[in-house]
Amino acid sequence: MTAEHRSDRVTVLAGGVGGARLAHGLDLAGADLTVVVNVADDVELHGLWISPDLDTVTYTLAGLADEERGWGVVGETYAALDAMGRLGEDTWFTLGDRDLATHVVRTARLRAGASLSDVTAQLTAALGVRARVLPVTDDRVATLVDTPAGRLGFQEYFVGRRHADDVLGLVYDGIDAARPAPGVLDAVTDADVVVVAPSNPFLSVEPVLGVAGVREALAGTTARRVAVSPIVGGRAIKGPAAQILTTLGHEVSALGVARLYVGLVDVMVIDDHDAHLADAVRALGMDVVVTDTVMGGAPGRERLAREVLRAGGASRG
Amino acid sequence: MTAEHRSDRVTVLAGGVGGARLAHGLDLAGADLTVVVNVADDVELHGLWISPDLDTVTYTLAGLADEERGWGVVGETYAALDAMGRLGEDTWFTLGDRDLATHVVRTARLRAGASLSDVTAQLTAALGVRARVLPVTDDRVATLVDTPAGRLGFQEYFVGRRHADDVLGLVYDGIDAARPAPGVLDAVTDADVVVVAPSNPFLSVEPVLGVAGVREALAGTTARRVAVSPIVGGRAIKGPAAQILTTLGHEVSALGVARLYVGLVDVMVIDDHDAHLADAVRALGMDVVVTDTVMGGAPGRERLAREVLRAGGASRG
User: Fold this and answer.
1) Are A47 and B112 a contacting pair at CB < 8 A?
2) How many domains does chain B have?
3) In degrees to the nearest 10, what's the CA dihedral of A218, A219, A222, A224?
4) What percentage of chain A exceeds 90 in pLDDT?
5) What is the structure's pLDDT at A6?
6) pLDDT at A316 over 70
7) Residue pairs between chains A and B whose CB atoms are closer than 8 Å
8) Is some CB atom of chain A closer than 8 A to the CB atom of B80?
9) pLDDT score at A16
10) Tell me: the pLDDT tens digits for A119-146?
11) Angle, to 10 degrees, between the axis of helix B116-126 and the axis of helix B97-111?
12) A114 touches B at CB < 8 Å
């Protein structure tokens, strides 16, 4: 087969919503897609193993995501959560009935001995997801957030306290012992294009890169490496990325993000609003693509995905 | 206090629906009520610990039971079950969203080290149940059903195959090692009245009596012991009691049931339709009360409960 006749092998390193939406666009654009997903947000609640980023990616690729809200399943109901509250459980972490089913099934299969990779493959297959969705590791990694109020579990920080606390530091508990899940390193090494999603650099991307071998695989891959900035016009499209960049001493801009990826990324995709930063990013040794990076629904995702694929193909051959 | 000024201490030995409804009637009648509940129907499905009889008793006493259907929670929805089916789980065991919450919470607390008694006390308290609801044991007992199709797990027999198989024998797996839960033996020994509910003698009552010390406590208690026949006019009010009596070689009648309880029961409550059996039951050494034993809603339950309390008080003092 010639290059014209096969799909690009594209691997996305992703957190939740931003990664999920760009992955969706790449899927719509026909990429041969692998999504390597952060699991450091995972949490056990009510005895159930919850993997929010894996679920966001899966639901989005399956067309089940609640796009308006940005998390969970569309048309969701909350009868079980209501009943759990009545039974005396803390219900600060909102679990819809359909989402709960995912957690029940995942937990049962994990307890029966399956790996998180196995279960993720089963769930994505059951929901008709074409892409490979891989947890970055089958081992347990937990982001802990140091704040003026003390060290918080990730979901306590993110959902329980609505990421209002200043982030003074981050600990990825367990990451030193975490081995990459089957297929993860190959997906980075053997891809035509590796995409660092417009996800939070500290909460999503770093706990992916920190798993043994992933950063090295990204540094060493022959794939063209493209990052999309999650910061547009000095603000995060979603979530606390801007605050965290600030409190950790980084510039809150696409340039600040680009600096974090020096040596790991060949092309930085930045928003039209940030065109004035293009030269400074180029000075870091990266190519720059300036485009509209704010994805809305499916058309916007596919458009950005095609830009990313073009950026990824620019230097090939 | 004189006898007139305190509630009767009443302990019910119960399975599911029949026991739950009579317990409800006794609660409405103002009894100081303890319900000792069969757990040999319990099953682990989807990694969740399900205790159908405990839940039926609890939901009924809490006013949450789906009375029309005879199991589960009124106004129930099935979003999670639907999603679980989509994820490839077997869904022959119908779990509503609210019911699922009970199983999730129970399972989480059991895994965290609580006993089934502890969890049951927490759940009944949370739902405003006044009566003490006690699993007969915190240990695991599982009814296995020998049929022409082989040995079946209880829920497979009962729900999965709709109790259509002939029952050739029953095994209460684990019962020899099962210890009575805290309070169970005292509840039988110290009661004023012990009621054997109109539950299935083989599927519900026997795996209660078979737990170490329970049969002996019932045989030796100074309480007045009253059983209500689950067979009316040669038919079971609900479930497979009639078929099981037949295939195990017993007479399908209130008399056949009474014979199973000789030495354990002082008064047999039989239905008006079975008045002609009263003398034969008396010949077994029991008193007989003939009344309408078919409970409908709350008024019918309370009426039967008052008959039972009268029967239980008849010989006192």
Assistant:
1) yes
2) 1
3) 70
4) 88
5) 57
6) no
7) 105
8) yes
9) 87
10) 999 999 999 999 999 999 999 999 999 9
11) 140
12) no
> Is A159 in CB contact (< 8 Å) with chain B?
no
Segment 47-76 of chain B within 8 Å of chain A by CB: 47-48, 73, 76
Q: Which of B263, B196, B199, B278 is nearest to B231 (CA)?
A: B199
Structure tokens at B308: 């039972």
What tokens appear for B259 in the block? Answer: 């014979």
Distance (Å) from the C-alpha of residue B85 to the closest C-alpha of chain A?
9
Q: Six-digit token pair at B253?
A: 């009648």
Contact B97 A105 (CB under 8 A): no
Here the tokens at position B227 are 């059983």
**Cβ-based contacts of B77 with chain A (< 8 Å):** 77, 79, 97
Asked if the Cβ–Cβ distance from A97 to B107 is below 8 Å, we say no
Residue B227 sits in a domain whose CATH number is 3.40.50.10680
Q: What pLDDT, in 10s, does the model give residues B140-184?
A: 999 999 999 999 999 899 988 999 999 999 999 999 999 999 999
Of B84, B104, B126, the CB nearest to A47: B104
Question: Of A150, A157, A152, which Cα lies nearest the Cα of A243?
Answer: A157
Give the Cα separation of A171 and A147 in Å (integer).
Answer: 11
Identify which has the larger pLDDT, A295 or A211: A211
Name the pairing type of β-strands B193-196 and B224-228. parallel
Query: Which residue did the predictor score with more confidence, A88 or B314?
Result: A88
Distance CA B214, CA B186 (A): 10
**A285 backbone φψ class: left, alpha, beta (φ>0; ψ -120 to 50):** left
Residues with Cβ within 8 Å of A125's Cβ and at least 6 positions away in sequence, in order, are none
| Span B8-38, pLDDT tens digits | 899 999 998 999 999 999 999 999 999 999 9
Q: Which value, in Å, is the radius of gyration of the alpha carbons in chain B? A: 19
Place of tokens 């980084």: A250
| Residue B39 Cα, gap to closest chain A Cα (Å) | 21
Residue B57 has pLDDT above 90, yes or no: yes
Please check the confidence at residue B249 and state whether its pLDDT lies above 90.
yes
Tell me if chain B has a CB within 8 Å of the CB of A94: no
Q: Return the pLDDT at B55.
A: 97
Range of the domain at B86: 3-313
What pLDDT shows up at residue B6?
A: 58
Which residue type, as a one-letter code, is found at position B230?
A: P
Closest by CA position to B13, among listed B289, B222, B269, B207: B207
By the 10 Å C-beta count (0-12 exposed, 13-18 middle, 19+ buried), A189 is classed as middle
In B127-168, alpha helices (H): 154-155
Helix, strand or coil, per DSSP, at residue B11: strand
